[in-house]
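Handout, section B. The chain below has 509 residues.
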Amino acid sequence: MQPRHISDVKSGMNAYHHSNSNAEARQLLADLLARKNTLQPRERLAIPPQEMPCQDPATRIHNMNEVALGYTPEQVRLESLRCLQCKNAPCIEGCPVRINIPAFIQAAVEGDFQRAIDIIKANSLLPAVCGRVCPQEVQCQLNCTVRKALKSVDQAVSIGRIERFVADWERADRRAAIPPIKPSTGKKVAIIGSGPAGITCAADVRREGHAVTIFEALHKPGGVMMYGIPEFRLPKRIVEEEIAILKAMGVEMRTNFVVGRTRRLKDLFEKDGFEAIFIGSGAGLPKFMNIEGENLVGVYSANEFLTRVNLMRAYDRESADTPIISCRKTAVLGGGNVAMDAARTALRLGAKEVHLIYRRTEAEMPARVEEVRHAKEEGVIFHVLQNAKRILGDAQGRVRAIECLRYELGAPDESDRPRPVPIPNSEFTMEVDAVIVAIGNDSNPLIGQTTPEIKTNRWGNIVVDENGQTSMERVYAGGDIVLGSATVILAMGQGRRAAAAINRLLAAK
């Protein structure tokens, strides 16, 4: 059966969505795949985006299992068929690590998932991670020609979901290959921090034959992927499997090692013989609002709250003894991805109500649209154009309520978003017994404090040039320690850039 009109493609695909047992829809799917090399752009544009299967909200708030369940092989090939294979590939321009996106999508169309993942891994060591947590809608998918043609970011080719599928396909039967390593050069490179920037830099430097040691302050490597992103968005076994590949490449991991305390940066050069250093120590210093009551029992930074839950498994009451407060009503302050993570985690820990308080409107929220939607589906109560003025405690020094102030939007500020302006005499009180402050983090100050040769800006971020080089010779940096707040893929892009500069430096020596 060959579609006679574009409407046939669309109606048939809608039937496919609503009934996987529908014989006509299945036949249409087979015909589209059979004609994959002759489909016209207008026919590809008529194929609706494939919805991501997810756990039901009523079920998932009672477990820590992954919410998004992943595409089926049929879905991934259909979604890949939507790609127009543009010659100018604008999606690549939006990718911080410049994956050859049209090539891996075409391989997925053909069902050659091994070739697809091989193409991705030429540029990215963390496809299963990036496919889950990277904000593709403001990067590669923002530039997608399909999005532009259909005038909606929701209509872009779901590049991240395709990437996730082929990465999971490779992991399913432990097919993951170890990247080739060039002969040993006898040169040593130190990587400080095992988050996305550090891991990416380590992999690219190791591929050139240099010895690489990663120094991690915590007891498990993985950085923000381990302590910051909840299990229901990024299962920790995935991060551990990606780390295992790095170890198989010969990268040494040294945990519980705080550079600046356990060892000074200079000592890594002078005593340990490293010839270059990359700093990817992240932004782990929580920000607070400096309001009355932030010292009460029951007030957490999102950083501490998520670390207790994700890294120290506070949710696993039977196997872990990590202390965390049991609360009935929780307030979360902020509107970014971390605020959504904290709010959704609080629900899973048993809170009956979770109130997310944000001083602008939903349109200005920096969180991913998908994360906002999932939070609402799960029952998080949103309070926009409001913010905390003070936190109120009881006689035992525990949180009992939060006093908020109402806001209205004013002229744009330096972020080009409307400035939130407080409305005088608009205070009101909300009864809560826990408050999670999720308004961002500052850069780790320790290295800057112990190594004055490294120049930082007024926010404490390390200043680097276009190659990631700091003001100290042979020291490079990237990720949150430079950007203040970066996505996983942006941090990876900085790690790759610095690795290229380190490899050039060592090759010249």
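Note. Residues 194 and 222 are 5 Å apart (CA to CA). Compare this with the example in section A.
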